[in-house]
Amino acid sequence: MSEQQPKVPAADQTLRILAMLAASRGPLPASMIATQLGLPRSTVYHLLATLQEHGFVMHLPEERRYGLGIAAVELSSAYARQEPLTRIGRPLIAALVDRVRVSGHLAVPHGRDVLYVIEERAPGSPMLITDVNVRLPMQLTASGRAILAALPKAQVRALFPDRGAFVHRHDIIDDIDRYSKLRAVLDEVVTRGFAVERGSVTPEFSSVAVPVLDHREWPVAAIAVTFPDDQIAEDRLDGLAAEVRRTAETLSARIHGRPASA
């Protein structure tokens, strides 16, 4: 029997901090992290500073709290890019497209963008910009809005701290270029129960999206359908969103998560 390798204290403590932040619904004070993990405060502050330097932790100075940074989010989305979520999701998206007869896709968070990992076109539908491996700004897409609306507000604020965080599209009228506009859109998503995007990605095309949640009710992806504006009337959006939600709930269950909810 091989001898068990000794733990590396700093590595063990760093991973415990990241695991605690990942399990939390929002950013935490350093004092709470130290207390719950039984670590000296000086050690926790030192490790948090190193993690912040490398982008794995972000600091909210006004709240005196720490949360996961963009580098940690990209690690999370890397799992989704490496086949498991794609393999599980592909037949579900295909079945959704067969039912609703419009194109569908699965996207995962990638920093402030969404990365499209599955694209299923309905018969006769045109090619869309949301092809596999395409990245688009979160605030412009229904998938990104569905993901952001399911995140804690502090996490969204940390992702979009100022106007410089927003990528602008000068060819659309309803451009989200500041946090207050984004927050209003996300509040509407929560109220409505699903995200809607009209013409922000492709003129004369709209999308409806619902998040895919893990066991902590954290959005790991979003499922969306896209259609020409004249194909789906406003009064049909609720029924279409119900079909998308049904698929998202099935995918959530298959990755050992909880059903997607508004």
Automatic annotation (TrEMBL):
Q: Which Pfam families match?
A: HTH_IclR, IclR_C
GO biological-process terms attached to the record = glycerol metabolic process; negative regulation of DNA-templated transcription
Specify whether Transmembrane is a keyword of the entry: no
Keywords assigned by UniProt, alphabetized: DNA-binding, Glycerol metabolism, Transcription, Transcription regulation
Segments forming domain IclR-ED: 71-257
Cite the GO molecular-function annotations of the record. DNA binding; DNA-binding transcription factor activity
Q: InterPro entries per the record? A: ArsR-like_HTH (IPR011991), HTH_MetabolicPath_Reg (IPR050707), Tscrpt_reg_IclR_C (IPR014757), Tscrpt_reg_IclR_N (IPR005471)
Which residue numbers delimit the HTH iclR-type domain? 8-70
What this chain does, per the record? May be an activator protein for the gylABX operon.
The protein's name: Glycerol operon regulatory protein
